[in-house]
Design brief:
Largest sheet: 6 strands, parallel
Order of helices and strands: EHHEEHHEHHHHHEHEHEHEHEEHHHHHE
CATH architecture of the largest domain: 2-Layer Sandwich
Shape: elongated
CATH superfamily of the largest domain: Glutamyl-tRNA reductase, N-terminal domain
Distance between the termini: 12 Å
Number of domains: 2
Radius of gyration: 28 Å
Strand order of the largest sheet: 7-6-5-8-9-10
Helix content: 40-55%
CATH topology of the largest domain: Beta Polymerase, domain 2
Number of helices: 18
Strand content: 5-15%
């Protein structure tokens, strides 16, 4: 059974998402230690925290409890602190939600491209931790395929803008001449590369980078910009007309004290794309300085192009429906395998007896062909019944006709229709 515990910019405040975004150790590995949890993949970004679970049907509620415990151990955020800030999705809603997330339809800026890579990395990290499962692998592979289909077939990707570009658009009204802007970039990750590209598109040529982790010089050489180390950060930040931060540091990199130490007493523009926040709140207290953070960007995010959005949503729903049908078809696989094993065992026994009587090879071939023909119809019917949610009838028929109980052990005990003691969505 697939479940998703999701907290995002739509349900949780940014300060809570900050605390969830930087776990001390892999949360997925902790979750799968719980009884009945077959796999877990955790997607943690600046705008959302989501745990995708593959659990035994009878352990659904326990899987959510295990996730909340793992979150508290990994981030320090208790279940009480998280209450009312998350939803639990189950069954078909999980696939549709993930496909929508991967396609950028649930982002602060509709159609953003960064989320697709984050979804892939979440799956890779779970693999490295030994925390995933075949069903979660299938789910995330289909999410990537759906995202690519949406990007190629709709205008959502072309219309969508990254957080970096939207932030610069919001700053545009306050910048008279981009070509004259002295800019300090703090950070060297994916957002930093996107920021350099976006700044150059605006006409900015004076860009200096600082890396809290010591990667500034390498980044500067790669993108042909200047760089500054820790000793020169205060002066560079104070001298810059525009400061853009995008690091994963847990403590603020830019503070009012740093700017004043460098000589700034007023003015300037600071864009904080970090989560946790890279810029201390007291920076806004500097006279005439404008601070633009993620929460402000979210409030100003424009409405998406309606047609592109509708087309993308339709593709996501269709992909989720197909994912569910395939999954339901596969639910009858144990019964189909058991039936074929039983029939082929009888056939091999009959062939062996025939050989003892001197039967020819043609007789054996005819018998094998007949068995294949006989199995075709019940196999197809079993898949069709499973696809329509009637897999139980397949298992019942197998047990009634042949005395074979092929149900997986996890299927024996079934949960209540809504097994969660949390804010669940069935």
């Amino acid at each position: 059974m697939l479940l998703c515990l999701t907290a995002s910019h739509k349900t949780a405040p940014f300060d809570l998402l900050e605390r969830l975004s930087a776990p001390g150790d892999p949360i997925s590995a902790r979750i799968v230690e719980a009884d009945g949890v077959n796999g877990a993949i955790v997607l943690a970004t600046c705008n959302r925290f989501e745990a995708y679970l593959d659990v035994a049907d009878s352990k659904a509620s326990g899987g959510i409890d295990a996730t909340l415990d793992a979150i508290e151990q990994g981030t320090g955020v208790s279940a009480d602190a998280l209450a009312d800030s998350y939803e639990v999705l189950s069954a078909g809603r999980v696939a549709e939600h993930l496909f929508s997330v991967a396609s950028g339809l649930e982002s602060v800026v509709i159609g953003e491209v960064e989320i697709a890579g984050q979804v892939r990395r979440a799956r890779d990290e779970a693999n490295e931790a030994g925390a995933t499962s075949p069903e979660l692998e299938r789910l995330f592979q289909r999410a990537t395929e759906t995202q690519k289909g949406v990007k190629n077939a709709t205008a959502i990707g072309r219309a969508g803008r990254s957080l970096v570009r939207l932030a610069l658009e919001l700053a545009d009204s306050r910048v008279s001449d981009w070509t004259a802007q002295r800019t300090l970039l703090v950070g060297t990750g994916a957002y930093a590369a996107a920021t350099v590209a976006a700044l150059r598109d605006q006409g900015v040529t004076d860009i200096t980078v600082h890396s809290p982790t010591g990667r500034g010089e390498r980044f500067a050489l790669k993108y042909d910009i200047d760089w500054v180390d820790d000793s020169g950060l205060a002066a560079a930040a104070a001298d810059a007309d525009l400061v853009v931060t995008c690091t994963s540091r847990e403590q603020p990199v830019i503070t009012a004290e740093l700017l004043r130490r460098g000589g700034r007493t007023s003015g300037g523009f600071v864009i904080d794309l970090g989560l946790p926040r890279n810029v201390a709140p007291d920076v806004a207290e500097i006279d005439s300085l404008t601070l633009l953070d993620l929460e402000t960007i979210r409030l100003h995010a424009p409405l998406e192009e309606l047609q592109a959005h509708d087309d993308a949503r339709r593709m996501v729903r269709d992909a989720a429906t197909k994912f569910g049908v395939v999954g339901r078809e596969q639910s009858a696989s144990p019964a189909i395998v058991a039936l074929r094993k039983h029939v082929f065992s009888l056939m091999e026994s009959e062939i062996a007896r025939g050989k003892g009587r001197g039967d020819t090879e043609r007789t054996e071939q005819a018998l094998r062909h007949m068995v294949g023909v006989l199995l075709h119809e019940p196999t197809s019917r079993a898949r069709d019944l499973a696809a329509s949610g009637r897999a139980d009838e397949v298992f019942d028929a197998l047990e009634t006709l042949f005395g074979i109980d092929a149900r997986p052990a996890a299927e024996v005990e079934r949960p209540e229709e809504c097994p969660f003691g949390h804010s669940a969505s069935a």
